[in-house]
Amino acid sequence: MNWLRRHGHWLLTLYIAFVFIQSLFFKFSGSPETVYIFQGKLDPWAASLGLPGLFAPGGLFSARVVGTFELIASVLLIAGAAMTGRRWVQVAGAAMALGVISGAIFFHLFTPLGVAVVNTDGSSDGGELFILACGVWLASAALLWLRREVWLAWMPGRVRRTALPQTTLRRG
């Protein structure tokens, strides 16, 4: 258990970074799967709401923009885990990862994209992307919980006192 307490943040960090970094090739190369998801499913949905081009190349939520944020989050997570005394860097990466992946989960659940993405050839990913996204969300949330002393220190005193057990706040 002590090993997990000391090194569990690395396991969470490496899982998040693995999922994000392995998807970068698809997002930056314009792979058919990515084009289908962003331009074939999400952009027409956004256009039906009066937001054409939102997911198209050059759009606010294009594959490259999302990939860039995933890359930045991965770098922050790994750098923060590796640097002693700079836990806030890892917290920033976990918060960024949580934000990015919350968007991905939202779009899987509430748009025509769906949980199981059906590709242009008719094959389904069986929900693999959605399951990975849920895993990243859980890992990011767990990492933020493990590093709560960092972000709670930024909160006003009253919030900090009610959020942490008294044993954590005692000076000894």
Description:
The structure is a single chain. The protein has helices at 2-29, 32-48, 63-82, 87-110, 128-146, 148-152, 157-163, 166-169. By secondary structure, it is mainly alpha-helical. The radius of gyration is 19 Å and the shape is elongated. The mean pLDDT is 90.
Provide a quick synopsis of the model.
The chain is mainly alpha-helical and 172 residues long.
Structural class: mainly alpha
Secondary structure tally: strands: 0
Helix content: over 70%
Query: Which regions have little confidence, pLDDT < 50, spanning 5+ residues?
Result: none
Which range does the strand content fall in? under 5%
The average pLDDT value, as a whole number, equals: 90
Largest sheet: none
Radius of gyration in whole Å, from Cα? 19 Å
Order of helices and strands: HHHHHHHH
Helical run tally: 8
- C-alpha end-to-end distance: 24 Å
**Net shape:** elongated
